[in-house]
Design goal:
CATH topology of the largest domain: Aminopeptidase
Largest sheet: 9 strands, mixed
CATH class of the largest domain: Alpha Beta
Number of strands: 22
CATH superfamily of the largest domain: Zn peptidases
Strand order of the largest sheet: 1-2-3-13-4-14-20-16-18
Number of domains: 2
Distance between the termini: 41 Å
Amino acid sequence: MEEKTEGQQLAERLSFDLKTCWETVKQEDIAEVEKFSVDYKKFIDRGKTEREFTAQCLDILKKEGFIDIESLISDEKSEKLVPGAKIYLNVKGKSVIFAILGKKPLSAGINIVGAHVDSPRIDLKTNPLYEDGGFALFDTHYYGGIKHYQWTTIPLAMHGVIFTKDGERCDICIGEDESDPVFVITDLLPHLAQDQMQKKASEFFRGEDLDVLVGSKPYPDEKVKEKVKLTILDVLNKRYGITEEAFASAEVEFVPAGKARDIGLDSSLIGAYGHDDRSCAFTAWRAVLDIAKDNTPGKTVICYLSDKEEIGSMGNTGAQSRQFENFVALLHAKSAAYSEVDVRLVLSRSAMLSADVNAAFDPCFADVWDKKTASYCGKGIVLSKYTGRGGKYGGSEASAEFCWKVQNILNKNGVQWQFGNLGKVDKGGGGTIAYHIADLGVDVLDCGIPVLSMHSPFEIISKIDLWTTYRGYLAFLKDC
Protein backbone atom coordinates (compact mmCIF):
# COMPACT_ATOMS: atom_id res chain seq x y z
CA MET A 1 0.00 0.00 0.00
CA GLU A 2 1.39 3.38 -1.04
CA GLU A 3 2.33 5.62 1.89
CA LYS A 4 0.27 8.83 2.16
CA THR A 5 2.05 12.10 1.59
CA GLU A 6 2.33 14.76 4.27
CA GLY A 7 -0.30 16.81 2.43
CA GLN A 8 -2.73 13.89 2.26
CA GLN A 9 -2.33 13.23 5.96
CA LEU A 10 -2.85 16.91 6.75
CA ALA A 11 -5.97 17.03 4.59
CA GLU A 12 -7.40 14.00 6.41
CA ARG A 13 -6.74 15.64 9.78
CA LEU A 14 -8.09 19.10 8.95
CA SER A 15 -10.84 18.57 6.36
CA PHE A 16 -14.50 17.65 6.97
CA ASP A 17 -15.05 15.06 4.24
CA LEU A 18 -17.58 12.34 4.99
CA LYS A 19 -18.05 8.87 3.57
CA THR A 20 -21.54 7.39 3.66
CA CYS A 21 -22.53 5.69 6.90
CA TRP A 22 -22.89 2.43 4.98
CA GLU A 23 -19.11 2.49 4.50
CA THR A 24 -18.35 3.10 8.16
CA VAL A 25 -21.07 1.13 9.99
CA LYS A 26 -19.88 -1.97 11.83
CA GLN A 27 -20.90 -5.18 10.08
CA GLU A 28 -22.53 -6.48 13.25
CA ASP A 29 -24.82 -3.41 13.32
CA ILE A 30 -26.29 -3.97 9.84
CA ALA A 31 -28.92 -6.36 11.21
CA GLU A 32 -29.88 -3.74 13.83
CA VAL A 33 -30.29 -1.12 11.09
CA GLU A 34 -32.66 -3.43 9.24
CA LYS A 35 -34.65 -4.37 12.34
CA PHE A 36 -35.06 -0.72 13.31
CA SER A 37 -36.32 0.04 9.80
CA VAL A 38 -38.88 -2.76 9.96
CA ASP A 39 -40.20 -1.42 13.29
CA TYR A 40 -40.43 2.06 11.81
CA LYS A 41 -42.31 0.95 8.69
CA LYS A 42 -44.89 -0.91 10.77
CA PHE A 43 -45.36 2.12 13.01
CA ILE A 44 -45.93 4.69 10.27
CA ASP A 45 -48.21 2.32 8.35
CA ARG A 46 -50.50 2.38 11.39
CA GLY A 47 -50.02 6.10 12.06
CA LYS A 48 -50.77 8.12 8.92
CA THR A 49 -52.46 10.98 10.77
CA GLU A 50 -51.46 12.92 13.88
CA ARG A 51 -54.28 11.24 15.83
CA GLU A 52 -53.24 7.72 14.80
CA PHE A 53 -49.55 8.32 15.47
CA THR A 54 -50.30 9.84 18.89
CA ALA A 55 -52.66 6.99 19.79
CA GLN A 56 -49.97 4.40 19.05
CA CYS A 57 -47.46 6.30 21.19
CA LEU A 58 -49.90 6.56 24.09
CA ASP A 59 -50.80 2.85 23.97
CA ILE A 60 -47.16 1.83 24.26
CA LEU A 61 -46.32 4.47 26.88
CA LYS A 62 -49.09 3.13 29.11
CA LYS A 63 -47.85 -0.44 28.65
CA GLU A 64 -44.34 0.74 29.63
CA GLY A 65 -45.61 2.20 32.90
CA PHE A 66 -45.89 5.90 32.04
CA ILE A 67 -48.50 7.74 34.13
CA ASP A 68 -50.86 10.50 33.00
CA ILE A 69 -49.68 13.64 34.79
CA GLU A 70 -53.19 15.10 34.82
CA SER A 71 -54.35 12.20 37.00
CA LEU A 72 -51.58 13.07 39.48
CA ILE A 73 -52.60 16.72 39.55
CA SER A 74 -56.26 15.90 40.15
CA ASP A 75 -55.32 13.50 42.96
CA GLU A 76 -54.46 15.69 45.94
CA LYS A 77 -53.10 12.66 47.82
CA SER A 78 -50.60 11.71 45.13
CA GLU A 79 -46.98 11.85 46.23
CA LYS A 80 -44.23 13.96 44.71
CA LEU A 81 -42.47 12.53 41.67
CA VAL A 82 -39.11 10.89 42.31
CA PRO A 83 -36.15 10.20 39.97
CA GLY A 84 -37.08 7.53 37.47
CA ALA A 85 -40.76 8.54 37.39
CA LYS A 86 -42.30 8.19 33.92
CA ILE A 87 -45.08 10.60 33.03
CA TYR A 88 -46.98 11.80 29.95
CA LEU A 89 -49.48 14.42 28.85
CA ASN A 90 -52.06 13.63 26.17
CA VAL A 91 -52.73 16.90 24.31
CA LYS A 92 -56.25 16.43 22.92
CA GLY A 93 -55.36 13.20 21.17
CA LYS A 94 -53.21 14.99 18.56
CA SER A 95 -49.98 15.68 20.42
CA VAL A 96 -48.13 14.03 23.29
CA ILE A 97 -45.39 15.07 25.70
CA PHE A 98 -43.69 12.52 27.93
CA ALA A 99 -40.76 12.53 30.33
CA ILE A 100 -38.50 10.51 32.59
CA LEU A 101 -37.53 12.35 35.75
CA GLY A 102 -33.74 12.44 36.19
CA LYS A 103 -31.48 12.11 39.22
CA LYS A 104 -30.60 15.80 39.10
CA PRO A 105 -33.21 18.38 40.12
CA LEU A 106 -35.18 20.13 37.37
CA SER A 107 -33.22 23.28 38.16
CA ALA A 108 -30.24 21.63 36.37
CA GLY A 109 -32.23 21.86 33.15
CA ILE A 110 -33.99 19.34 30.91
CA ASN A 111 -32.83 17.52 27.78
CA ILE A 112 -35.56 17.60 25.11
CA VAL A 113 -36.11 16.15 21.67
CA GLY A 114 -39.11 17.66 19.88
CA ALA A 115 -40.69 16.64 16.57
CA HIS A 116 -44.06 17.04 14.86
CA VAL A 117 -46.53 14.33 13.86
CA ASP A 118 -48.65 16.11 11.24
CA SER A 119 -47.93 15.87 7.50
CA PRO A 120 -49.28 17.52 4.33
CA ARG A 121 -52.57 15.96 3.22
CA ILE A 122 -56.03 16.58 1.75
CA ASP A 123 -58.78 17.60 4.23
CA LEU A 124 -62.54 17.75 3.67
CA LYS A 125 -64.42 21.02 3.70
CA THR A 126 -67.24 21.34 6.24
CA ASN A 127 -69.98 20.67 3.66
CA PRO A 128 -68.10 18.43 1.24
CA LEU A 129 -70.42 15.95 -0.44
CA TYR A 130 -71.95 16.85 -3.82
CA GLU A 131 -73.09 15.22 -7.07
CA ASP A 132 -72.10 16.24 -10.57
CA GLY A 133 -71.95 14.44 -13.93
CA GLY A 134 -73.18 11.17 -12.46
CA PHE A 135 -70.46 11.09 -9.77
CA ALA A 136 -70.41 11.76 -6.04
CA LEU A 137 -67.40 13.83 -4.96
CA PHE A 138 -65.93 15.32 -1.82
CA ASP A 139 -64.95 19.01 -1.89
CA THR A 140 -61.56 19.47 -0.19
CA HIS A 141 -59.08 21.94 1.28
CA TYR A 142 -55.44 20.86 1.21
CA TYR A 143 -53.34 21.03 4.39
CA GLY A 144 -49.70 22.13 4.40
CA GLY A 145 -47.36 22.87 1.50
CA ILE A 146 -48.02 20.54 -1.41
CA LYS A 147 -47.57 20.43 -5.17
CA HIS A 148 -51.23 20.01 -6.13
CA TYR A 149 -50.61 17.87 -9.21
CA GLN A 150 -48.74 15.20 -7.21
CA TRP A 151 -51.98 14.23 -5.45
CA THR A 152 -53.94 13.36 -8.58
CA THR A 153 -54.48 9.83 -9.99
CA ILE A 154 -52.98 8.05 -6.99
CA PRO A 155 -54.88 5.76 -4.58
CA LEU A 156 -56.04 7.66 -1.50
CA ALA A 157 -57.32 6.40 1.85
CA MET A 158 -59.91 8.09 4.04
CA HIS A 159 -58.93 8.55 7.69
CA GLY A 160 -60.50 10.61 10.45
CA VAL A 161 -62.93 11.16 13.27
CA ILE A 162 -66.63 11.93 12.88
CA PHE A 163 -69.45 12.17 15.48
CA THR A 164 -73.06 11.04 15.31
CA LYS A 165 -75.96 13.21 16.47
CA ASP A 166 -75.85 11.35 19.79
CA GLY A 167 -72.20 12.26 20.29
CA GLU A 168 -70.80 8.82 19.51
CA ARG A 169 -67.29 9.02 18.07
CA CYS A 170 -66.56 7.07 14.89
CA ASP A 171 -62.97 6.42 13.84
CA ILE A 172 -62.75 6.10 10.06
CA CYS A 173 -60.10 4.24 8.09
CA ILE A 174 -61.06 3.17 4.56
CA GLY A 175 -58.55 2.25 1.89
CA GLU A 176 -55.69 0.70 3.85
CA ASP A 177 -56.90 -2.91 3.88
CA GLU A 178 -56.50 -4.81 0.60
CA SER A 179 -60.25 -5.53 0.57
CA ASP A 180 -61.14 -1.83 0.98
CA PRO A 181 -62.06 0.50 -1.85
CA VAL A 182 -59.73 3.46 -2.37
CA PHE A 183 -60.38 7.02 -3.53
CA VAL A 184 -58.83 9.22 -6.21
CA ILE A 185 -58.53 12.77 -7.51
CA THR A 186 -58.94 12.60 -11.29
CA ASP A 187 -56.88 14.41 -13.94
CA LEU A 188 -57.36 15.44 -17.56
CA LEU A 189 -56.23 13.17 -20.40
CA PRO A 190 -53.27 14.50 -22.48
CA HIS A 191 -55.42 14.63 -25.64
CA LEU A 192 -57.53 17.45 -24.15
CA ALA A 193 -54.88 19.09 -21.97
CA GLN A 194 -53.29 21.52 -24.43
CA ASP A 195 -54.43 24.57 -22.44
CA GLN A 196 -53.63 22.95 -19.10
CA MET A 197 -50.09 22.08 -20.21
CA GLN A 198 -49.33 25.73 -21.01
CA LYS A 199 -49.88 26.81 -17.40
CA LYS A 200 -47.23 27.23 -14.69
CA ALA A 201 -46.90 24.25 -12.36
CA SER A 202 -48.46 26.29 -9.53
CA GLU A 203 -51.54 26.87 -11.69
CA PHE A 204 -51.59 23.50 -13.42
CA PHE A 205 -54.01 22.07 -10.87
CA ARG A 206 -55.82 24.52 -8.59
CA GLY A 207 -56.39 23.71 -4.95
CA GLU A 208 -60.09 24.24 -5.51
CA ASP A 209 -60.05 21.39 -8.05
CA LEU A 210 -58.63 18.71 -5.73
CA ASP A 211 -61.99 16.99 -5.32
CA VAL A 212 -62.08 13.31 -4.36
CA LEU A 213 -64.13 10.81 -6.35
CA VAL A 214 -66.24 8.72 -3.94
CA GLY A 215 -68.92 6.95 -5.97
CA SER A 216 -71.11 6.62 -9.07
CA LYS A 217 -73.99 4.25 -8.25
CA PRO A 218 -77.44 5.93 -8.17
CA TYR A 219 -79.91 5.18 -5.38
CA PRO A 220 -82.82 3.15 -6.86
CA ASP A 221 -85.61 5.71 -6.43
CA GLU A 222 -86.77 7.82 -9.37
CA LYS A 223 -88.24 10.50 -7.11
CA VAL A 224 -84.85 11.30 -5.53
CA LYS A 225 -83.03 14.25 -7.13
CA GLU A 226 -79.35 13.45 -6.29
CA LYS A 227 -79.31 9.68 -6.46
CA VAL A 228 -75.54 9.06 -6.33
CA LYS A 229 -75.05 11.43 -3.41
CA LEU A 230 -77.84 9.63 -1.56
CA THR A 231 -76.14 6.27 -2.14
CA ILE A 232 -72.95 7.58 -0.46
CA LEU A 233 -74.94 9.05 2.46
CA ASP A 234 -76.74 5.71 2.83
CA VAL A 235 -73.44 3.79 2.92
CA LEU A 236 -72.00 6.14 5.56
CA ASN A 237 -75.19 5.99 7.62
CA LYS A 238 -75.32 2.20 7.61
CA ARG A 239 -71.62 1.90 8.43
CA TYR A 240 -71.21 4.71 10.96
CA GLY A 241 -74.70 5.93 11.86
CA ILE A 242 -74.00 9.45 10.60
CA THR A 243 -75.93 11.94 8.49
CA GLU A 244 -74.68 14.73 6.22
CA GLU A 245 -74.79 17.16 9.13
CA ALA A 246 -71.92 15.27 10.80
CA PHE A 247 -69.41 16.62 8.27
CA ALA A 248 -69.70 20.10 9.83
CA SER A 249 -67.68 18.95 12.88
CA ALA A 250 -65.72 16.05 11.36
CA GLU A 251 -61.97 15.76 10.94
CA VAL A 252 -61.60 13.68 7.79
CA GLU A 253 -58.29 13.46 5.95
CA PHE A 254 -57.26 11.83 2.68
CA VAL A 255 -53.73 10.41 2.61
CA PRO A 256 -51.91 8.10 0.17
CA ALA A 257 -53.12 4.52 0.48
CA GLY A 258 -50.64 1.68 0.85
CA LYS A 259 -47.70 0.69 2.98
CA ALA A 260 -44.13 1.87 3.39
CA ARG A 261 -41.84 0.04 0.99
CA ASP A 262 -38.14 -0.61 0.54
CA ILE A 263 -36.65 1.19 -2.46
CA GLY A 264 -33.80 0.12 -4.73
CA LEU A 265 -32.31 -3.21 -5.70
CA ASP A 266 -30.20 -2.99 -2.54
CA SER A 267 -33.26 -2.12 -0.35
CA SER A 268 -31.23 0.68 1.25
CA LEU A 269 -34.02 3.29 1.17
CA ILE A 270 -37.57 3.54 2.48
CA GLY A 271 -40.41 5.11 0.52
CA ALA A 272 -43.53 6.16 2.44
CA TYR A 273 -46.03 8.89 3.08
CA GLY A 274 -45.21 11.15 6.04
CA HIS A 275 -41.46 10.74 6.63
CA ASP A 276 -41.73 14.50 7.30
CA ASP A 277 -41.76 14.43 10.21
CA ARG A 278 -42.79 11.07 11.54
CA SER A 279 -39.35 9.62 10.82
CA CYS A 280 -37.90 12.03 13.40
CA ALA A 281 -40.90 11.62 15.71
CA PHE A 282 -40.42 7.84 15.74
CA THR A 283 -36.67 8.01 16.36
CA ALA A 284 -37.15 10.59 19.15
CA TRP A 285 -39.94 8.54 20.72
CA ARG A 286 -37.86 5.34 20.59
CA ALA A 287 -34.83 7.08 22.08
CA VAL A 288 -36.74 8.23 25.18
CA LEU A 289 -38.55 4.90 25.45
CA ASP A 290 -35.23 3.04 25.41
CA ILE A 291 -33.84 5.36 28.09
CA ALA A 292 -36.87 4.43 30.19
CA LYS A 293 -35.80 0.77 29.97
CA ASP A 294 -32.27 1.69 31.08
CA ASN A 295 -31.09 3.33 34.28
CA THR A 296 -32.55 6.61 35.54
CA PRO A 297 -31.03 9.43 33.44
CA GLY A 298 -28.87 12.14 35.00
CA LYS A 299 -31.08 14.99 33.79
CA THR A 300 -34.80 14.80 33.16
CA VAL A 301 -35.50 13.91 29.51
CA ILE A 302 -38.57 14.90 27.50
CA CYS A 303 -39.98 13.91 24.13
CA TYR A 304 -42.36 16.48 22.65
CA LEU A 305 -44.43 15.35 19.66
CA SER A 306 -46.46 18.33 18.45
CA ASP A 307 -49.19 18.96 15.89
CA LYS A 308 -49.88 21.67 13.27
CA GLU A 309 -46.23 22.36 12.32
CA GLU A 310 -47.03 22.18 8.63
CA ILE A 311 -49.31 25.21 8.94
CA GLY A 312 -47.25 27.25 11.41
CA SER A 313 -47.65 25.34 14.71
CA MET A 314 -50.91 27.17 15.40
CA GLY A 315 -53.73 26.16 17.74
CA ASN A 316 -53.88 24.45 21.11
CA THR A 317 -52.06 21.33 19.87
CA GLY A 318 -49.24 23.18 18.09
CA ALA A 319 -45.87 24.33 19.40
CA GLN A 320 -47.04 27.95 19.63
CA SER A 321 -49.49 26.93 22.36
CA ARG A 322 -48.67 26.87 26.08
CA GLN A 323 -48.88 23.06 26.24
CA PHE A 324 -45.13 22.38 26.48
CA GLU A 325 -44.64 25.18 28.97
CA ASN A 326 -47.61 23.87 30.96
CA PHE A 327 -46.12 20.37 31.03
CA VAL A 328 -42.84 21.64 32.46
CA ALA A 329 -44.81 23.61 35.08
CA LEU A 330 -46.79 20.49 36.01
CA LEU A 331 -43.56 18.49 36.29
CA HIS A 332 -42.14 21.13 38.60
CA ALA A 333 -45.31 21.26 40.69
CA LYS A 334 -45.20 17.50 41.25
CA SER A 335 -41.48 17.23 41.95
CA ALA A 336 -40.64 20.34 44.01
CA ALA A 337 -42.13 23.34 45.75
CA TYR A 338 -43.75 25.22 42.86
CA SER A 339 -42.39 28.61 41.87
CA GLU A 340 -43.06 30.49 38.62
CA VAL A 341 -39.53 31.91 38.75
CA ASP A 342 -38.08 28.42 39.13
CA VAL A 343 -40.01 27.17 36.09
CA ARG A 344 -38.51 30.02 34.02
CA LEU A 345 -35.04 29.07 35.25
CA VAL A 346 -35.62 25.42 34.35
CA LEU A 347 -36.51 26.41 30.78
CA SER A 348 -33.55 28.78 30.44
CA ARG A 349 -31.16 25.98 31.48
CA SER A 350 -32.67 23.38 29.15
CA ALA A 351 -31.49 22.11 25.76
CA MET A 352 -33.45 20.74 22.83
CA LEU A 353 -32.91 19.10 19.47
CA SER A 354 -35.65 20.20 17.10
CA ALA A 355 -36.09 16.83 15.44
CA ASP A 356 -37.16 17.72 11.93
CA VAL A 357 -36.16 16.50 8.50
CA ASN A 358 -34.04 18.37 5.97
CA ALA A 359 -34.11 18.25 2.18
CA ALA A 360 -31.59 15.74 0.82
CA PHE A 361 -29.49 16.71 -2.20
CA ASP A 362 -31.12 15.45 -5.37
CA PRO A 363 -28.79 15.18 -8.40
CA CYS A 364 -31.79 15.54 -10.72
CA PHE A 365 -32.37 19.09 -9.40
CA ALA A 366 -28.81 20.07 -8.48
CA ASP A 367 -29.21 23.76 -9.37
CA VAL A 368 -31.27 24.61 -6.25
CA TRP A 369 -28.63 23.33 -3.80
CA ASP A 370 -25.33 24.63 -2.54
CA LYS A 371 -23.47 21.31 -2.59
CA LYS A 372 -21.05 22.45 0.14
CA THR A 373 -23.84 22.82 2.70
CA ALA A 374 -26.43 20.37 1.38
CA SER A 375 -27.37 17.23 3.30
CA TYR A 376 -26.99 13.86 1.60
CA CYS A 377 -28.89 10.60 1.94
CA GLY A 378 -26.73 8.03 3.68
CA LYS A 379 -24.31 10.45 5.38
CA GLY A 380 -26.01 10.53 8.76
CA ILE A 381 -27.96 12.85 11.00
CA VAL A 382 -28.23 16.45 9.72
CA LEU A 383 -27.36 19.46 11.91
CA SER A 384 -28.90 22.72 10.70
CA LYS A 385 -27.43 25.66 12.59
CA TYR A 386 -30.13 27.94 11.21
CA THR A 387 -33.39 27.76 9.31
CA GLY A 388 -35.65 30.41 7.76
CA ARG A 389 -35.89 32.07 4.38
CA GLY A 390 -33.74 34.60 2.53
CA GLY A 391 -32.08 36.62 5.27
CA LYS A 392 -32.87 33.90 7.85
CA TYR A 393 -36.39 35.28 8.37
CA GLY A 394 -38.92 33.08 10.13
CA GLY A 395 -36.41 30.64 11.52
CA SER A 396 -34.15 29.82 14.43
CA GLU A 397 -30.36 29.95 14.80
CA ALA A 398 -28.40 28.04 17.41
CA SER A 399 -25.41 29.59 19.14
CA ALA A 400 -21.85 28.50 18.39
CA GLU A 401 -21.54 27.20 21.95
CA PHE A 402 -24.58 24.95 21.68
CA CYS A 403 -23.69 23.72 18.19
CA TRP A 404 -20.22 22.72 19.39
CA LYS A 405 -21.72 20.98 22.42
CA VAL A 406 -24.03 18.84 20.29
CA GLN A 407 -21.31 18.06 17.74
CA ASN A 408 -18.96 17.02 20.54
CA ILE A 409 -21.58 14.68 22.04
CA LEU A 410 -22.16 13.01 18.67
CA ASN A 411 -18.41 12.68 18.02
CA LYS A 412 -17.78 11.10 21.43
CA ASN A 413 -20.56 8.58 20.83
CA GLY A 414 -19.39 7.68 17.33
CA VAL A 415 -22.50 9.11 15.64
CA GLN A 416 -21.80 10.49 12.17
CA TRP A 417 -23.35 13.91 11.48
CA GLN A 418 -23.38 16.27 8.51
CA PHE A 419 -24.17 19.90 7.70
CA GLY A 420 -27.53 20.75 6.19
CA ASN A 421 -29.06 23.94 4.81
CA LEU A 422 -32.34 23.94 2.89
CA GLY A 423 -31.20 24.94 -0.59
CA LYS A 424 -29.44 28.05 -1.91
CA VAL A 425 -29.96 31.31 -0.03
CA ASP A 426 -32.60 32.82 -2.33
CA LYS A 427 -34.17 29.61 -3.59
CA GLY A 428 -36.54 29.08 -0.67
CA GLY A 429 -36.16 27.82 2.88
CA GLY A 430 -38.34 26.69 5.75
CA GLY A 431 -38.85 26.56 9.49
CA THR A 432 -39.53 24.07 12.28
CA ILE A 433 -40.85 24.16 15.84
CA ALA A 434 -37.37 25.30 16.98
CA TYR A 435 -38.03 29.00 17.31
CA HIS A 436 -41.23 28.50 19.33
CA ILE A 437 -39.31 26.57 21.99
CA ALA A 438 -36.34 28.93 21.75
CA ASP A 439 -38.76 31.74 22.68
CA LEU A 440 -38.97 30.09 26.13
CA GLY A 441 -35.21 30.51 26.62
CA VAL A 442 -34.26 26.94 25.67
CA ASP A 443 -31.09 26.26 23.62
CA VAL A 444 -32.34 24.67 20.38
CA LEU A 445 -30.63 23.14 17.35
CA ASP A 446 -32.42 21.65 14.32
CA CYS A 447 -31.32 18.08 13.84
CA GLY A 448 -32.89 15.33 11.72
CA ILE A 449 -33.06 13.04 8.69
CA PRO A 450 -32.40 14.02 5.04
CA VAL A 451 -35.44 13.39 2.81
CA LEU A 452 -35.90 13.14 -0.97
CA SER A 453 -39.20 14.29 -2.56
CA MET A 454 -40.23 16.07 0.64
CA HIS A 455 -43.95 16.97 0.97
CA SER A 456 -44.85 14.58 -1.84
CA PRO A 457 -47.22 11.64 -1.32
CA PHE A 458 -44.22 9.26 -1.35
CA GLU A 459 -41.11 10.57 0.38
CA ILE A 460 -37.76 8.77 0.56
CA ILE A 461 -35.20 8.34 3.35
CA SER A 462 -32.15 6.13 3.90
CA LYS A 463 -32.34 3.30 6.42
CA ILE A 464 -28.88 4.15 7.71
CA ASP A 465 -29.85 7.78 8.34
CA LEU A 466 -32.92 6.63 10.28
CA TRP A 467 -30.78 4.46 12.56
CA THR A 468 -28.01 7.05 12.89
CA THR A 469 -30.55 9.71 13.87
CA TYR A 470 -31.98 7.45 16.58
CA ARG A 471 -28.47 6.95 17.97
CA GLY A 472 -27.84 10.69 17.82
CA TYR A 473 -30.98 11.52 19.80
CA LEU A 474 -30.14 8.83 22.34
CA ALA A 475 -26.61 10.23 22.83
CA PHE A 476 -27.89 13.79 23.23
CA LEU A 477 -30.54 12.88 25.79
CA LYS A 478 -28.06 10.91 27.90
CA ASP A 479 -25.01 13.20 27.70
CA CYS A 480 -26.08 16.81 27.18
